[in-house]
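#data-curation
PF: Archiving a pair of folding outputs for the training set. Convention for this channel: one message per protein, sequence first, structure tokens after, nothing in between. First:
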Amino acid sequence: MPFVTLKEVLTAAEEGQYAVGAFNANNMEIVQAIIEAAEEERAPVILQASQGALKYAGIGYITAIVQAAAASSTVPVVLHLDHGTSFEQTMQCLKHGFTSVMFDGSHYSLAENIALTRKVAEVAHAMGASIEGELGRIGGTEDDISVAERDAFFTDPAEAQQFVAETKVDALAIAIGTAHGPYKGEPVLDFARLTDINDRVAAPLVLHGASGVPDDSIRKAVAGGIRKINIDTELRQAFTRAVRQIVQEKPAEIDPRKILGPAKEAMKEVVKAKMRLFGCCGKA
């Protein structure tokens, strides 16, 4: 089926009180794993391209692979830019058929972030697409976007209210204690802050850096208003574990399909488990 917008799937998620998984796509096997999982679980899904994915595969390849997968899919699929770094880049993605873009202005002042995000939002909405903004910084590293842990800060609820009102974003990524990349210890989320933000903000809320967050914390975050949850690291871990196992067990194997096939299946199981955890299974 044709791509849908982020606003469409998150509006339904808000009504149903569940979250939709957003999974980073870098190559064909990852895209296939995500789409097959969504089909089997009858779940809406967000496939997103990060800065690293765009540099690795190129915007044309990423778009074409996801379009091919979505064309034969019967569940709602969103093609989303993750952590867009500039107005120009978000425009390129929209021109290539992305139905949603994230503009990450979290490293700017509040006033600059609002002004730049609003500019992207105006064009995205005029093109029938959705936009995600970010307020507060997520610790760790997201491809080319690094934030030292000591400099990471949480989202201010009052600023979140102002930001959404002035930018008209369709979703807001907030910082409440998660981090990009593998965790050094168990993350502790600020649920009181989440409740305060959710009470003030009309836009659906987004949780970045959710790989490795305990299931109980994820369930509590969804109950508290999180409607989009980003997963990347756990897919990479599943992929590399499967590839290493095949190479170790069958060192003479030279068929890429027999190496990458098991890796695809391993990632699919991770995606399905996350969809069940988020509560979006059967919501397609």
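PF: Second:
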Amino acid sequence: MTKHIHNISSIAMVTLVTLVVGFSSCKSQKKLTEISDFEKVAQSDDESTEQVKEEPKEIKETVAKAVSKEDRLNNYFGAIATASSVNSANASIQEALAMFNSSEAPVLIVIYKAGSQPDYDEPTTISKYLNYLKDTKNNNARVEEAVYDAIGRIKELVLKKSF
């Protein structure tokens, strides 16, 4: 009987060792699978992060295209006229001037239009007009027409006074 118990205990021991080895190898395979899955998730997160980094750039470009140059210029006029400080107005003036081929680009202001024949105020330059906005804080004209050069900068501007 002791021999039989000895055989059972050795069979149990072999079975136990087999189970331990089997479970430990399953765990290590599971760990490897988990690590592999983690790497896949990490890679997809990296790709998602790259896409997120690129999306705002695309959105900015789309928004910039959606807002016409004339609208941007009208926005600059408003920012200059309502600037809280001279430095802020001067910064907006410099940004607006970047849209022109020269600070001496002519600006015509329509003050009256009877039929198809407009009457203009005295011609000025864009630099003088932007400084006028800064000094008077009176923005009562909107872009009616802009003439562009070959590289897309404004070379002549027609404004329409609004009353």
